Amino acid sequence: MSFDIKRLDSADSAFYAQLDALLAWEQVSDDQVEQTVREIIADIRSRGDAALIEYTNRFDRMQVSSMAELEIGHSQLQQAIETIPAEQRTALEHAADRVRSYAERQKMETWSYTEADGTILGQQVAPLDRAGLYVPGGKASYPSSVLMNAIPAKVAGVSELIMVVPTPDGIVNELVLAAAAIAGVDRVFSVGGAQAVAALAYGTETVPKVDKIVGPGNIFVATAKGMVFGQVGIDMIAGPSEILVICDGQTDPDWIAMDLFSQAEHDEDAQAILVSQDADFLNKVADSINRQLPGMERAEIIAASLKARGALIKVRDLDDAVAVANYIAPEHLELSLEDPQAVAPQIRHAGAIFMGRYTAEALGDYCAGPNHVLPTSRTARFSSPLGVYDFQKRSSLIYCSAAGAADLGQTASKLARGEGLTAHAQSAEYRIPKA
User: Fold this and answer.
1) In whole angstroms, how far apart are CA 263 and each of 124, 214, 267, 309, 331?
2) 169 lies in some domain
3) Paired strand residues for 307
4) By CB atoms within 10 Å of each CB, which of 163, 275, 321, 387 scores lowest?
5) Is 332 assigned a catalytic role?
6) Which of 382, 317, 367, 418 is nearest to 147 (CA)?
7) What's the DSSP call for residue 156?
8) Can you name the residues that pair with 130 across neighbouring β-strands?
9) How do residues 169-226 score in pLDDT, each as one tens digit?
10) What is the pLDDT confidence band of residue 239, given thresholds at 50, 70 and 90?
11) Residue 336 belongs to what H/E stretch?
């Protein structure tokens, strides 16, 4: 399975053109997918539970006749905690504690200030009433994603969190259910696909309508989330997982190779890139990749990912490496350096920054504390990790004293009349005392 991973050099005149080609990725949602999803959403809106049951039976090979059979009760969630091995329960609870502790520090608070004339301005923060969490089922079952999506919502104060998870052939993932119980999920339905997204967005007789939908899914789920956006909020349309490692050549090359593998094993579209000014070190990592790859459980997926979208990039120096990283705006960025904290402030665009030789990205996926739901496909240029703030909303607070209304009214009147909006102007002028 030996192969040569792509090599790029920032000194080449065509470097950034080559880098653009490497980074290019378009989510494939063809006309047929979009038409199918559009029909499913329309059907759920018009027929509710009946349509949801039909799609679940068809796509997940189930045989249910009522929504009661598709709701997973609290007793089953609690039973899952007792059923899973003790070490897995301990690991889930430890991870949950760390995610919750980090999330508590993200909460936005209401604030206000009073001006000299008694006018009060401020911001009122409130949680969403209800949020929906989509969890993939079947082979792609990730209890860690349950913790990362559910805990910030509960910390934010969301009153009701509804989880949907497909159970193909009726097979339930106990770890996912245990994670839901530990995270405080309120209701769970064993439904998935575009039909589950539509049910959350518009509501059915049984599934409550939510205010925001979060969580990863396949192309049908992603397309459905895009279509219902506006009716509800969504977290993001996530692309393939990514890692960019900047290394000074002093970290064990086997460690770095395995860090690249950790993202490449997600799927063939995942992207793993190493940047270093040390050409000899890049060679050592390339050798380690070929030596360790045959022993990996997901070797074929890793190989396909590295061959199609992976790269080893030679840069001039550390400043050049930082420039490349900011251009790429990676989901995960490892600073495997002697003094990563000196470099971190120079990073403007990254979903999460892992500092030091001992901080493997995998720790962030599971239990470090910060959220692992991160912007992909260069969207870290303008997006942030999922957090408590995604489940809170802000309202502006404005209280005018009589003196404040008179002062502000004159300014508002002039601007409104300048825009030709005389009702606006008069509304403000009525509050100005007559001379």
Assistant:
1) 40, 21, 8, 11, 11
2) yes
3) none
4) 387
5) yes
6) 367
7) H
8) 160
9) 998 899 999 999 999 999 999 999 999 999 999 999 999 999 999 999 888 999 999 9
10) confident
11) strand 332-336
Identify any residues that bridge with 125 across adjacent strands, giving them in sequence order: 394
Domain termination site, one of 325, 350, 368: 368
Is the confidence at residue 313, as pLDDT, over 80? yes
Kindly state the percentage of the chain with pLDDT values over 90: 93
Which is catalytic among the residues 242, 265, 332, 334? 332
Claim to verify: residue 200 and residue 336 sit in the same structural domain: no
E-only strand ranges, 43-168: 71-72, 111-114, 120-127, 130-134, 160-164
In the prediction, which pLDDT does 2 show? 65
Do 250 and 315 sit in the same domain of this protein? yes
Q: Which residue has the tokens 């608070």?
A: 109
Same domain, 406 and 334: no
Report pLDDT for 140.
61
- What is the pairing mode between strands 212-214 and 352-355? unpaired
Give the integer Cα–Cα distance in Å for 153 and 25. 30
Among residues 234, 254, 277, the one where a domain terminates is 234
Given pLDDT bands bounded at 50, 70 and 90, which one contains residue 117? very high
**Predicted confidence (pLDDT) at residue 42 exceeds the cutoff of 60:** yes
CA distances from 219 to 25, 27, 54, 238, 428 (A): 14, 8, 20, 10, 51
Question: 331 an active-site residue?
Answer: yes
Quickly tell me which residue has 């009349």 as its tokens: 417
- Three-state SS across 376-415? CCCHHHCCCCCCHHHHEEEEEEEECCHHHHHHHHHHHHHH
Catalytic residue selected from 174, 242, 265, 331? 331
The CA distance from 38 to 32, in Å, is 10
Separation of alpha carbons 216 and 394, rounded Å: 26
